[in-house]
Amino acid sequence: MITINEAFQKFLNEQETCLKPETFLDFEDVILLYEEFLEFSAEDFLSEEDRDLYTVRHEHDNKNYCDIFGPEYLTASGIKDFLDDYVVEVGGGKKFTGTAAKVLDKFFEWTQKKGYIDEKFLEVNSEVLRKYKKRY
After folding, report:
1. How confident is the model at residue 124 (pLDDT cuts 50, 70, 90)?
2. Burial code of 59-74, b = ≥16 C-beta within 10 A, e = fewer?
3. Where are the alpha helices (DSSP H) in 1-136?
4. How far apart are CA 90 and CA 119, in angstroms?
5. 119: exposed, middle or buried (C-beta count within 10 Å: 0-12, 13-18, 19+)?
6. How confident is the model at residue 82, as a pLDDT?
7. Please, are residues 83 and 93 in contact by the beta-carbon 8 Å criterion?
8. Which sequence spans correspond to the domains of the chain?
């Protein structure tokens, strides 16, 4: 199993080789901000069993959310909270929200191609992101 942080790092490493530097910086900014959001709020969406796992690994192994769970834990409701609330709170405007939606859509397409998430998971998340990409 690959963790969220490992997937983020591999994704960014691949993108860096094929994107213009300023475009890559946008990708990196979005991923870092999304990671920050996940560390602050994602445990709120965990089942009781997963919350127990998170607590043990966080306290005993000093692991963060993104170092414990895989990309399949990146839910549509979490994406909405990130784009609707968190991006706005940190001062991201409409353009950045649209950029964030595009970057996350590329990330989920990439994770599906790598076999880290299944097709149905990609479809659900892409549907949410499509609305944001159209809006901004």
Report:
1. very high
2. eeeebbbbebbbbebb
3. 4-18, 21-41, 48-61, 65-68, 76-81, 87-89, 94-113, 119-135
4. 32
5. exposed
6. 94
7. no
8. 4-135
**CA separation for the pair 70, 100 (Å, rounded):** 20
Task: Specify the 3-state DSSP secondary structure of 2.
Answer: coil
Residue with tokens 């127990």, as numbered in its chain = 52
Q: Which of 81, 67, 71, 69 is nearest to 108 (CA)?
A: 71
CA–CA dist 132, 136 (Å, integer) = 6
For residues 77 and 134, what is the distance between their CA atoms, to the nearest angstrom?
18
State phi, psi for 90 to the nearest 5 degrees. -85, 5
- Note the pLDDT tens digit of each residue in 6-40: 999 999 999 999 999 999 999 999 999 999 999 99
Place of tokens 């949410």: 128
